[in-house]
Write a structure and sequence with these properties.
This protein is α/β, with parallel strands linked by helices. The protein has two domains: 4-266, Spore Coat Polysaccharide Biosynthesis Protein SpsA, Chain A (Alpha-Beta Complex), CATH 3.90.550.40; 284-508, Alpha-Beta Complex (Spore Coat Polysaccharide Biosynthesis Protein SpsA, Chain A), CATH 3.90.550. Helices cover 29% and strands 22% of the residues. It contains 14 helices and 24 strands. It has helices at 16-27, 47-58, 85-104, 123-129, 172-186, 205-208, 225-235, 260-266, 298-305, 323-330, 349-361, 380-389, 471-484, 493-498, and strands spanning 4-12, 34-42, 63-67, 75-76, 81-82, 109-113, 117-118, 134-137, 140-141, 150-151, 191-194, 200-204, 240-243, 249-250, 284-290, 311-316, 336-340, 367-370, 375-377, 396-403, 409-411, 423-428, 456-465, 506-508. An eight-stranded mixed sheet has the order 3-2-1-6-12-8-13-11, with helices on both faces. Strands 17-16-15-18-22-20-23-19 form an eight-stranded mixed sheet, sandwiched between helices. Helix 1 packs parallel to helix 2 (47-58) and helix 9 packs parallel to helix 10 (323-330). The longest helix has 20 residues, at 85-104. It is globular.
Length: 512
């Protein structure tokens, strides 16, 4: 196979310990479909940092190492990083030199990465697979000590994180709500279009030869060479994207070095305990949350599962009907663990999902099937589930979920297109993996947020989501979301309002 050639480029003005962590993560980059060369601009004032770059070259990597100059001073302290115009211009010129080299030497991709980042071994392979001309990997930074963690991407202007339409005037309250909603959204693993990005970016050759650069734009007063790059890309008609599956780790302050090992442990490098798998005999454990499902779809869903699952963990979130009795009757003969909440926890969904997760892993599962009481797989899932489990390559499978608006039709429009993306429902439990959650009261995800750092694959078998299939269900959910998320901090207000549309666009469900 002809591997794609990637040039990793980085101007380097860095403290030794931080640079060491950065270079070690570069050494661990996987190269299944790519080959990697490096181009560093050594602008260090610390001789030990320059020695690290020289040692990196001697260890066998193909490195083009050029010397910087002493114009401009970059000051980093425990509060923030202090940029001045001279330093910004210098870094922009270095990056333009790297672009020129990449073009002249016919690299397929250029990966710009700042020297205070630690990246996942699969990152470049993953970004390449996204098939976007410009795509950054996300990382989160406390830019100032009195600020929360914020991303390396933005939507408008210099660093505007508020989604809005052209000319739209918003109150400060609405701005805060939209900003929070945007930040919550990009914490969900996915690929999102943005207006600005930087510091950890894969760029295709097609874009490089179109003329993107970090050169200042004379009639703009916004600050930062990355802004100039992004504006030029937009003018050239090139969309910008951020990927949030393999978040990088930013060593913004020296104290952040303390978190490097935890970050590395999260993706299980070679020195970590090996992944677990079985060639046969895998136990399939159902994990489900229920509440007052007796008159809805629980009977139908559990009967579709009976005979296929080996164990079940069910969290009853304060039912007042015969839900528990139905579970016991249909799943009779299967090890069944029912945990009853005296009071509903759904107002704080992340704590409810954590409880579901913790109770499930107590059973020492091999594979976890996490579906809700109104979701059903196509029959072909059960014809293939043993093949999905009895393999080594993947720990997580993602499927498309269709929001049914009746027994025969699903909804499809701007707000109802869940079936256009793949979501995780089937997971091999790896006890040594460091699982992390999206800490939001609503829409936190049914699994820990970082499971797609594990080897994963998509599957074309579909799920029906029956939870919207009747007018009664839709009215109940509309009321619930308006109560639990009145300011649409965790969801989209217009989507909430669209639940009760009188004439939505529906598509007929066709059996595979």
């Amino acid at each position: 196979m002809n591997k794609k050639r990637v040039l990793v480029g980085s101007p380097v003005y860095q403290k030794t310990k931080i640079l060491d962590a950065f270079l070690k993560s570069l050494k661990n980059l996987n190269r299944k479909t790519i080959s990697i060369d490096y181009m560093f601009v050594d602008d260090n004032i610390d001789e030990n940092s320059s020695k690290l770059l020289a040692e990196f070259e001697r260890e066998g990597s193909t490195v083009i190492n050029i010397w910087g100059n002493d114009q401009g001073v970059y000051i980093c302290d425990d509060e923030t990083h202090h940029w001045n115009d001279d330093f910004m211009l210098k870094v922009g010129n270095y990056k333009n030199d790297i672009i020129k080299y990449a073009i002249e030497n016919k690299y397929d991709y250029l990966f710009f990465v700042d020297s205070d980042l630690v990246v996942h071994p699969d990152l470049i392979e993953h970004l390449k697979a996204a098939n976007k001309d410009i795509v950054s990997e996300i990382f989160w930074t406390q830019w100032h000590n009195d600020r929360p963690l914020e991303p390396n991407v933005w939507l408008f202007d210099e660093y505007d994180l508020v989604p809005k339409r052209f000319g739209e005037i918003l109150s400060e309250e609405d701005k805060d709500i939209r900003r929070t909603r945007f930040l919550n959204q990009i914490r969900i693993p996915g690929l999102y279009e943005v207006g600005g990005l930087g510091a950890c970016t894969l760029i295709s050759r097609a874009v490089l030869i179109k003329g993107v650069s970090f050169k200042p734009i004379k009639n703009l007063t916004i600050h930062g060479e990355d802004r100039f790059f992004c504006i030029r890309a937009a003018v050239l008609g090139i969309d910008l994207f951020v990927d949030t599956y393999y978040s990088a780790y930013h060593i913004y302050r020296e104290k952040d070095l303390d978190g490097v090992q935890d970050y590395i442990a999260g993706y299980q490098p070679d020195h970590a305990p090996a992944r677990q798998y079985k060639k046969h005999g895998n136990k399939l454990t159902l994990s489900m949350i229920v509440k007052n499902e007796g008159k809805r779809y629980l009977d139908q869903v559990l009967n579709s599962l009976k005979g296929h699952i080996d164990e079940a963990v069910i969290i009853d979130d304060g039912s007042t009907d015969n839900t528990i009795q139905i579970c016991k009757e249909i799943l009779k003969g299967i090890p069944l663990n029912i945990i009853q909440n005296e009071q509903s926890m759904f107002a704080d969904e992340v704590e409810l999902r954590k409880k579901q997760w913790n109770e499930t892993i107590k059973t020492n599962p091999d594979w976890i099937l996490n579906i809700d009481a109104d979701e059903m797989f196509e029959d072909s899932f059960w014809d293939n589930v043993q093949k999905l489990m009895n393999q080594k390559a993947y720990d997580c499978y993602c499927f498309r979920l269709y929001d049914m608006w009746s027994e025969t039709h699903y909804r499809e429009d701007d707000y109802w297109n869940a079936h256009s993306i793949y979501r995780s429902f089937l997971l091999r439990y790896q006890p040594q993996f460091n699982y992390n959650w999206k800490e939001t009261p609503q829409h936190c995800g049914r699994f820990p947020a970082n499971i797609l750092s594990l080897p994963n694959a998509t599957c074309e078998i579909r799920l029906k989501h029956l939870g919207w299939a009747t007018e009664e269900d839709r009215a109940a959910k509309y009321k619930r979301y308006k109560h639990l998320d009145p300011d649409a901090l965790y969801g989209i207000r217009d989507q909430y309002e669209s639940i009760m549309d009188i004439d939505p666009k529906l598509m007929k469900w066709e059996e595979s």
